[in-house]
Amino acid sequence: MNRRDFLNEITLGALGIAGLGSVAVSYQYFSPNVLFEPSTTFRAGNPDLYPVHSVTFLQDQQVYIVRMPDGFYAVSAVCTHLGCVTQWKADAEMIACPCHGSKFQADGTKIEGPAPRPLPHFAISLTADGELTVDKLEIIKSTQVLRV
Amino acid sequence: MATTLNSALQNLRETKVWKSIFRRGPANTNRTRSLAVFGNLFLHWLPVKVREKSLRVRASYYLGSISFILFLVLFITGILLMFYYHPAAPHAYRDMKDLQFVVSNGVLLRNLHRLAAHLMVFAVFWHMFHVFYRKGYKPPHEFNWVVGVVLLLVTLFLSYTGYLLPWDQLAFWAVTVGTNIISAMPVVGSKIRFLVLGGNIVGENALLRFYVLHVVILPLVAFLLIGIHFWRVQKDGGLTVKPKDEDGKE
Q1: What backbone torsions phi and psi does residue A68 show, to the nearest 5 degrees?
Q2: Under-70 pLDDT residues of chain B
C-alpha cells in the first residue's frame, strides 16, 4: 500500500465513522426525552358508580369501564385498525368504529373487521382508598378480571 | 416613435452597466441567441433550440408546466400565509379561522393555496399517466422518470403534511390514521411513528414537525428535484414526441 491509498482509506474511514455517528446523534436529537402528553394512569372513581352489566365510555381517557357479574375490566376505545375512537352502541350491545365499520363485543372481542386485533384490556386495580385506577401503558390478558 | 425607442435601447446597450450584466450583443443571430440562453442562470438549463413539434398542445398538454406553475403559486401563497400562522396549539386553528374571517383577503390566499394544492396533485398524476402512455419512461428518459416518481411522492408528502396545519378534526384524524399506517410496518414501524410525531399522540410536537417538513424541507427537496427534472429533459434530447404515420397523422 502506498501513501496515497493509505491516506484515502484513513479519510474514508474517518468520514464513515463521522457519518454513522451523525446518524446516531440525529436519531437521539429527534426522539424527545420529555413529553408533555396526558398521564396514562387515571382514577375511574368508586366501583359503585358502575352498575353490573354496564359499559361506560370515559371520553377523556378513551377507555370503556365494563362491569360484568364476574368483575371489572378496562377496554381500550381506540380501534386497533387505524386509531379512531369507537363508540358503545347500547341498543345493539356492541362497540362500533365510525371510521371503517369494525365491530367488537363489550369485552373487546372482534366481531368483524377490518380491525386486525381485538381491543386490548388495560391493567385495572383498586387504590388503597377504594377507587378504580387504570394504567393505559400496561396491557393485560382479556381473561384477567378485577373482582370487587 | 419606434425609432426613438430603438435608438434609446441601442444607447442603453452601449452603457457600461448593461455590458457588465449582458456580456454579448443583441440576440439577433443564432450564435448570440444561444449565448443569451447559455449565459443566463435562469435559462441555461432550457434547451437552446426547441423542435416546433414538442411545443404543440398534443405533445404534452403542458401538464408538466401546469404542475410547475401550480407549485410556484403554492410557494408564493404559502409564504404569504406564514405571516399569519403560528405552528402551535391552540393558535394554529385560530390563525386558520382568522385568515378566513378576519385578515383582509386572507380567505382568497388560503383558498388559492388549498385549491392549487388539490390541483397540483391532480396535475402531477395526469402528467405521470400522460408520460407513461406516451412511453416517455423509455431510454434515454429512464432516469428522469425516476426523478419524476420521487417528485410525485414529494408532492403527496407536501399535501399530507399541509393537511395537518389547519389543526381541525379532519386534520387530526387524517394524521392519526396516516401515522398508524406507518406503525403497521414491521419492527421499526412504531419507532418511525414516534419520530414523525415527536411523541405518542398527534400533539404540538407533531404539528411543529409537520410544519417544518411542509415549509422548509420538502419545498427545498422539490426545488432541487424540479431543477434536475427540467435539466434532464434537455440533456435527454427533449420531449418524447409521437412520430408521424405515413399519412401524416400523429
Answers
A1: -115, 170
A2: 1, 240-250
A48 & A24 share domain: no
Q: Which three cell numbers stand for residue B48?
A: 437552446
A6 part of a folded domain: yes
Q: Which amino acid is at B159?
A: S
Sign of CA dihedral B177, B182, B188, B194: negative
Q: Residue A35: pLDDT band by 50, 70, 90 thresholds? A: confident
In what side-by-side order are the strands of the sheet with A110-112? Answer: A87-89, A94-96, A103-104, A110-112
Interface contact flag, A83 B203, Cβ < 8 Å: no
Q: Is residue A147 part of a domain?
A: no
398508524: which residue's cell? Answer: B180
Residues A123 and A60 in one domain: yes
pTM: 0.80
Cα gap B103→B77, rounded to integer Å? 14
- CA–CA distance, A46 with A42 (Å, rounded to integer): 13
Q: How far away is chain A from the Cα of B237, in angstroms, using its nearest Cα?
A: 37
Q: List domains and CATH numbers for chain B.
A: 59-235 (1.20.810.10)
What is the spatial distance between Cα B189 and Cα B187, in angstroms, rounded to a whole number?
A: 6
Domain count, chain A: 2
Where in the sequence is the domain holding A30, given as residue range(s)?
A: 1-36
Domain match, A31 and A45 both: no
The number of beta carbons lying within 10 Å of the beta carbon of residue B141 is: 20
- Residues B106, B110, B114: CA angle, nearest 5 degrees: 170
Query: Which of A35, A83, A84 faces B199 most closely, judged by CB atoms?
Result: A35
Give yes or no for A127 touching B (CB within 8 A). no
Give pLDDT tens digits for B75-119.
999 999 999 999 998 899 999 999 999 999 999 999 999 999 999
CATH of the domain at A97: 2.102.10.10
DSSP A84: P
Residue B100's contacts (CB-CB under 8 Å, 6 or more residues apart) are B106, B107, B110
Instruction: Inform me whether the C-beta atom of residue A37 falls under 8 Å from chain B C-beta atoms.
Output: yes
Residues A19 and A78 in one domain: no
pLDDT of residue B210: 96
